[in-house]
Task: inverse folding
């Protein structure tokens, strides 16, 4: 294998298993065959603005119709120009108005075991009250509201209440520090923070309000703090600044019609970390995002009225925005929401929830699946999971071995797995199997959704032979795409639009196989260059994870005089002992699975890997450790700082 023109990546992983949907599943699906999918995709690709405009007219409620589908002045997109709509109306009122008010909207379970169910009509009442309370605190169109809350129904209610009155929410994951909250408040100029007295996590109470107080000392733009009573903590309430939710929301009027808003009214900001520099406030707007979240939800999860749908993400991430709140609720789904940890009171909490609530669609992340595998099959086998019909995964590539476990143990070899590739920036799923139409291959996100046109380019920006792999770009704007970085349009242009002209640069590498299936190969910056061969992290990691002793693996390049990069891997083990023999066995295993090129030069056993708070392995930090450097760049998104310290200690 030689370095390919245009910077291709050596394609060394051989995954040949294919899993078509059962005939029975396909017969009942929204999109029933590959032919049907291809016809839809081709029709959409011929004229994307027309395709999306037709859907927008049918699927959203318009106070005033739009006059133009798309105005595109690269890199600025405006969708459904001239129209007026409201995302909260589409998610809540529309169902009530159309006679579905008694339908269940949210089925919630708290970590201590308390439960609540809200119908769409009840949700409308709660959201309207909250919206009136926000108004009474001086919030109106264009004001930014930071939300730092546990996964309670009130978190979704607060988001929707902002949308209802045209305020812009900025949800901050409730595991972030005071410093991170203050940074986000200041960057966005937030006027209000909504939080709670505390949050349940593994049986303990995290003092959220205390953390917010610390942040507010450094957040001059924030005028008020609205506090939900959740965990029974008794926080100090600052006179004139802080108000209790039960004081101002419960007594507010339930009459608050949704504000007709221009299609491009900002809906929310969501901060995501860059590899260096300060977090980027990704900006999404009203109509395009709402439509994209709704349609992708319906296509990918093949949503039906009798489904009980559960996405285990937190609303602090884009997955929670698009696939707990805006997508499923716009589709009128019955949404399961869980507050706490997957291992409280025991490591079978998720299986217990699925069994008791008869969940039919389950959407989670590879990092969680790897933890389930480690926790053991016995815990799964105790539960009846036959209500499930579709499984999903998002956030990282899934190693084929983890995919197979998910398929067998959780899906009972019956449920299609939708491996969904997308980003905070894309607003919704971009590539994924359609469960009734597209046969799956473990480790591949398969095909682009209708209206999405991927293009794989080399380092020179020209299209390459797709099977070789290169940088993944998207060739045409889509309604769910980000509209900018909050307060920094130059950075927006520079990060996503400057390297490849006319295409959105996703920042991932990918290849497309002879069947037109896409394989995400990791972040562009994570690629290893071993003696002129570009190797992807996921291939080496998947080879290691396919060994019975290995639980998780991370592969990075370490500078090497002769090879360019040496392959350094960090490995966590299931039950095995970290011996020299095992090290040699793993080298042989990688040689057999991939080839001599990928055999690790360094294998380090560790008890855990550094991850972001959303569960992604932070290879950037491991690269520094492998090279014996101090970790550079932003580490504020690291989930557990002690992991880094432990890894360094081993160095000394
Ligand atoms: C990055 C985006 C999308 C919501 C959660 C993460 C990686 C995401 C997959 C997948 C391989 C994936 C990519 C992407 N990623 N899904 N199915 N297969 N990689 O959102 O924090 O904005 O991260 O996550 O590298 O660029 P995010």
Result:
């Amino acid at each position: 294998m030689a370095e390919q023109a245009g910077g291709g990546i050596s394609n060394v992983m051989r995954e040949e298993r294919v899993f078509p949907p059962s005939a029975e599943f396909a017969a009942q699906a929204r999109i029933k065959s590959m032919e049907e999918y291809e016809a839809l995709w081709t029709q959409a690709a011929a004229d994307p603005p027309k395709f999306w405009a037709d859907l927008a007219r049918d699927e959203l409620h318009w106070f005033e119709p739009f006059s133009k589908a798309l105005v595109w002045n690269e890199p600025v997109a405006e969708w459904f120009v001239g129209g007026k709509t409201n995302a909260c109306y589409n998610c809540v009122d529309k169902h009530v108005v159309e006679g579905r008010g008694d339908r269940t909207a949210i089925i919630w379970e708290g970590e201590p075991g308390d439960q609540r169910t809200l119908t769409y009509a009840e949700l409308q009442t709660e959201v309207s009250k909250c919206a009136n309370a926000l108004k009474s605190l001086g919030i109106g169109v264009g004001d930014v509201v930071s939300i730092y809350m546990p996964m309670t129904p009130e978190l979704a209610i607060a988001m929707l209440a902002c949308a209802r009155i045209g305020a812009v929410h900025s949800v901050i994951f409730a595991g972030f520090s005071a410093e991170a909250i203050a940074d986000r408040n200041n960057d966005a100029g937030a006027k209000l923070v909504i939080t709670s007295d505390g949050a349940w996590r593994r049986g303990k109470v995290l003092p959220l309000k205390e953390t917010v107080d610390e942040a507010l000392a450094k957040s001059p733009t924030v005028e008020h703090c609205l506090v939900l009573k959740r965990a029974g903590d008794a926080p100090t309430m600052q006179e004139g600044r802080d108000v209790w939710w039960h004081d101002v929301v419960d007594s507010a009027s339930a009459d608050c019609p949704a504000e007709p808003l221009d299609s491009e009214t900002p809906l929310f900001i969501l901060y995501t970390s860059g590899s260096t520099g300060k977090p980027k406030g990704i900006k999404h707007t009203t109509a395009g995002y709402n439509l994209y979240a709704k349609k992708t939800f319906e296509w990918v999860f093949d949503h039906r009225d009798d489904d009980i749908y559960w996405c285990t993400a937190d609303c602090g991430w884009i997955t929670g925005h698009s696939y707990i709140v805006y997508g499923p609720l716009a589709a009128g789904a019955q949404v399961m929401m869980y507050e706490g940890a997957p291992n409280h009171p025991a490591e079978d909490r998720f299986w217990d929830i699925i069994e008791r609530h008869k969940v039919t669609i389950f959407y989670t992340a590879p990092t969680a699946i790897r933890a389930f595998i480690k926790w053991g099959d016995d815990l799964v086998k105790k539960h009846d999971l036959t209500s499930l019909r579709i499984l999903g995964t998002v956030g990282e590539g899934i190693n084929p071995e983890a995919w197979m476990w998910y398929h067998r143990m959780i899906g009972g070899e019956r449920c299609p797995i939708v491996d969904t590739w997308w980003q905070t920036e894309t607003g919704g799923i971009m590539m994924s199997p359609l469960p009734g139409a597209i046969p799956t291959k473990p480790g591949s996100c398969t095909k682009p959704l209708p209206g999405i046109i991927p293009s794989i380019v080399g380092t020179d920006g020209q299209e390459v032979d797709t099977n070789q792999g290169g940088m993944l770009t998207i060739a045409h704007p889509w309604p769910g795409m980000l509209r900018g970085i909050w307060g920094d349009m130059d950075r927006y242009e520079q990060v996503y639009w400057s390297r490849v002209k006319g295409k959105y640069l996703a920042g991932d590498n990918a290849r497309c196989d002879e069947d037109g299936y896409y394989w995400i190969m990791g972040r562009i910056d994570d690629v290893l260059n071993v003696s002129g061969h570009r190797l992807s992290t996921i291939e080496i990691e998947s080879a290691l994870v396919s060994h019975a002793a290995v639980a998780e693996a991370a592969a990075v390049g370490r500078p090497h005089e002769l090879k360019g990069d040496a392959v350094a891997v960090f490995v966590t083990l299931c039950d095995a002992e970290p011996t020299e023999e095992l090290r040699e066995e793993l080298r042989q295993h990688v040689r057999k699975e991939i080839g001599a090129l990928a055999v690790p030069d360094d294998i380090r056993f560790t008890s855990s890997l550094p991850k972001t708070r959303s569960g992604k392995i932070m290879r950037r930090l491991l690269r520094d450790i492998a090279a014996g450097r101090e970790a550079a760049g932003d580490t504020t998104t690291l989930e557990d700082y002690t992991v880094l310290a432990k890894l360094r200690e081993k160095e000394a």
Observations:
- Residues 15 and 442 are 7 Å apart (CA to CA).
